[in-house]
Amino acid sequence: MAYYTRVLSKEDEFPAFDELAQVIRSEHPGCRLTIEVGDEEEWESLLLSTDDEVEIALIERKPVFDGSAGQDEIADLIEDTLDSMPESGVAWLHEYMASVKTVFSLQHLLGADSEDGSAALHALRTALWEGGGAIIQADLEGFTNEEGFHIVWQFSDTVSGAWNMAVLQDETWHHFKMDLGDPEHREAFMRGEVPRDVSSVQLSRTED
Q1: Banded model confidence at residue 207, pLDDT cuts 50, 70, 90
Q2: Burial class (CB in 10 A: 0-12, 13-18, 19+), 12
């Protein structure tokens, strides 16, 4: 089964191909970005690969409008999170996705499993996300807020390790790092609460 990460943007403008290709050329010289469908100004899909032609990821740009593939993708993501937790994060997410204008869908291919391929893919996704007004989704993980902190749980029961998380309380994001494998940390997050023993919490107001 194909694995995807996505950048969900409130912007209908998008980076030109040259801008994204320059990120790869300057930061990951062993990789390259090529146009699959479209042209340098109106690209629809791109291929990230290594110089020896190992495919890392296929990137598709999907505008969101009535009847579009992007709209269908948003609808599927909303349906997939109807039973997710915490409720406050899911409610914010659904409201946010009603304003999404562009879906950047990144299908991970064979080269994404290598260290260099993973790093190049992360750099490309970050470049799309930093375009402004965007959140990130990852299959089998969940969604972030605009600051890049995880707000909706879709991990497996066996997941573990430190992770940057956020819960929404009274229109304020509480950002913290928790242990995904700690039962008490999980339970608190699912309730929309900050675990009691996390070392630090940063606050930021949501935009009106």
Answers
A1: low
A2: exposed
> What's the token pair of residue 188?
């608190």
**Amino acid of residue 4:** Y
**Which sequence spans correspond to the domains of the chain?**
3-205
What pTM value is reported for the model?
A: 0.94
Angle CA 75–71–81, to nearest 5: 20
Share of the chain above pLDDT 70, in %: 99
Query: What does the pLDDT look like over 105-137, one tens digit per residue?
Result: 999 999 999 999 999 999 999 999 998 799 999
Residue holding tokens 């992770």? Answer: 163
Residue 200 has, within 13 A of its CA and on its CB side, a CA count of 2
Q: Position 47: which residue type? A: L
Q: What one-character-per-residue DSSP string does 85-107 give?
A: B-HHHHHHHHHHHTT--EEEEEE
Question: Using one digit for the tens of pLDDT, what is the confidence trace for 135-172?
Answer: 999 999 999 999 999 999 999 999 999 999 999 999 99
* Cβ count within 10 A of residue 16: 13
> What CA–CA distance (Å, rounded) separates 114 from 176?
29
